[in-house]
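If I may wish for something, please walk me through the protein I am sending here so I can picture the backbone:
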Amino acid sequence: MKFQPRKMSALALGVAMGVSAMAAQAADQKTLPTTGAGTGAVFTAGATNNGGASYLDMIPAADAIDVVATIKPDPADVGQEGSLIIVLEVPGIGLFSRLSGGIWLPLDLNNLSSLGTYATKTLEAQEPVSILEGLVGEDTNLTGLTLNAYAAYITNGDLATLTYSGTPLSFTISEAPAAGCPTNTTAGQGTFNGKPICVISGGDAITTDTHLTANNAYFLDGTVRVGTQDFTENDDKIALTIDAGTTLFANSATQSFLLIDRSAKIYANGTPETPIVMTYDEDEEGSTAVDPIDDRGKWGGVIINGRAELNSQSGTAQGEGGTGEFGGGTTPVNDDDSGSMTYVQIRYAGDIITEEDELNSLALQGVGSKTNIDFINIHNGADDGVEFYGGTVNAKHLVLTGNDDDAVDWTLGWSGYLQHVVVKQTTSGDNCIEADNLGSNPTADPRSIPTVANFTCIGSPEQKGNGHAWELKAGTGMNMFNSVIGGTFPPVNEGCIRIANQETFDQSTSDGNISGLNGTLTMENSLISTACAADLQGQSSAPGSDFNATNWYNAQQNSTSGDADLGGPRAWANGWNINSVEPADLGMSWFDSTDYIGAIKDDTSDWTKGWTFDGFEEE
């Protein structure tokens, strides 16, 4: 290899001095500035404790982390022979370059022959590289240190072509948590699940950064509000950080909920092995006081207020249950960032204050697209599992079981994306999906038209008698792909799929008929059970219109009905017949490409295993 010290000096200067400002936690790898010959190259990198569901800049000392990068070479370099280079700086120890197989060589900037290469190969358009795997800070004496990692490449062995991330990925391994209760909490009495109790009191809003470590359990005593109603730029918001393996439990004797307001973010990122659990005060391990089948509504759940777009006249709305104003008004911010929630269980939440004033397990109120919602398990909510009140937030990997009203609900012009969702109804439950544009004005703009993929809805004969798989009403649209309706629904007169309100029909067709379907209400490459197909309800009232729910479903591209052969230990993995349906390729970068329809291809690839609550499953 031919070395050119001038180029290496530039990289060395970056290693020695460059530290990039990284958002605290994010759904995607951070994009790093590009320096060097290949100006069209793109470098991204991140440190994760949960397989890439979220990327962190502060890693708990006890968590195993992976540090990864993706090199997208300059298009002119794709197809050439290239050498991939990884450099890691460990403060107080030195610089190292990584070889293939996980071997690290000390890097002497005065002896550039010490620079190793991660791989030499024909460069492809995207080159994923692994920097560190399974590093546990407290096991390696690295706690309290900030590490800097660079990615680079050269072509044809010539350092004159060096292209690299001009500033590093910087990540810190936190110190082991100190004994005692953290800032904005107070010491309680006794233990919960064997951990000391710290109390987070309701009342005045928390207005400073707060970090809940996993060595304690946290008692939510009343309405806990983080942040204020103020419009705040993403980088200036305060943060509530909750470490993996932490339990929050709420006071069931008084209205208690956790509200993240417009000036704040939540960073609640668990792992598959150590999910974060949010529940109520009787739900302690080994307790016989909890009925996992029929207990619901023991606390108010989690509410996030954002400042993204709504279709209300003012661009704002008031949250139910006294949760405050949300939405961006006349100056919405659709890429508003309310933080990240991954690998979180929310149990026995929701609160029915009145029939028109209810709290959901997870209410996403005007939340923006930079917010990360992934791997969320909601069990036995008293109202909806998750409701999208307008906004542009997206969500993946939702497991919604035993919820009393709707598993998924949307309104107020929600236009986000949804993928990998499994809904299992039990002894209660209304709809797997209830969808509105806006009840008071069904033709309001922007119209609710989310894109939904890989959704599995499992009905139960014990759920509410007026329950549906989908109830599409009040002018809503929907573009659904690769989804399944199975299980058994109670006999009702409203349909397994119900399309309601004339505005829903009118806005979904250009001429009032099936021939004029305009692509805003679709369900493609999907399968519904034979029983569901026999119970599709809803008819346009336009004179002579042939637009009804049955004709609508029959007009969908590559969708069918038949045996919804769901199985596996939890009866939600696809069987042969479901897997014989050809999935659609959405061609949208946010969506994972799948070779199956429904949420879970088979028991082997069941992504719900290990981190979700299964204590309600009957033997």
